[in-house]
Amino acid sequence: MNLYFMLALQTPATPNPVLVQTFEILRQRGFDIELGIGEELLLQLDRLAVTHDLYVLKSHTALWLSLAEIVHAHGGRLLNPFPACLAAQNKIVAVERMRAAGIPVPRSWVTGDPDLLRSIVEERPVIMKPYAGGRGLGILVVHSPHELAKAPRPREPVLIQEYVRHEQELKVYVIGEEVFAMRTRGPSRDAPRWTCPISRDVREIALRCGRLFDLRLYGLDIVESADGPLVVDLNYFPSYRNVPHAAVLIADFIDAYARGPVSARVPARMTRIGRAIAAHH
Fold it and tell me: Domains along the chain?
């Protein structure tokens, strides 16, 4: 079977070790794998065709999302499904969809004019996020009207959420029905993180998000509030950095998904997982 991985351009160009190992495992199982970085390609639109059995979207760029939509329109199979990726990428849509489904999120507002937030900021700190942002880029915490006045004007609509003070953040990673949690301090992607037990509530929230958006490989950022856990971010196909046995589990999932019928969901716990982990460790 032929797999095509739609990858993001990394700066600096440091390969994700989880992906590198995943590719190696899949190749050992007989998959033909092609890797593409959208920014390094020149594609003629009238010659685009679905030539692979499965396309795996690992990039959040507008270019790859646009090309993924073309693959989707031509009947190609995508992991995660294109509509799921599109909804998760738009933070305004994602937050409102979660709120409407009863998934706990902070109080949220949207605007294209930050000056309209003055009365809100007078009462509580907020966090401003680009509606289509990612990797923590463009996020700003505002504590007062003075800070609001000094904030750079956004070029695009922003999602505003009540800022929940927290010392640690919970990074939740999902592979099919397998849920993992890591704790981290600080917003940096390079901040130290460590594995931790996952509560029943957090696991259920994570799986509900997957069912709501039809996501299979995805991650959430969760903070603890006085009212319980709140989802502050959702993204498809995260890094899975430091997740135990992530490469084997991802390879197992992609293997089963690629070989299964279009409408089939991969079993909650694939019987091969334990065997595969033992074989590779």
Answer: 108-162 (3.30.1490.20)
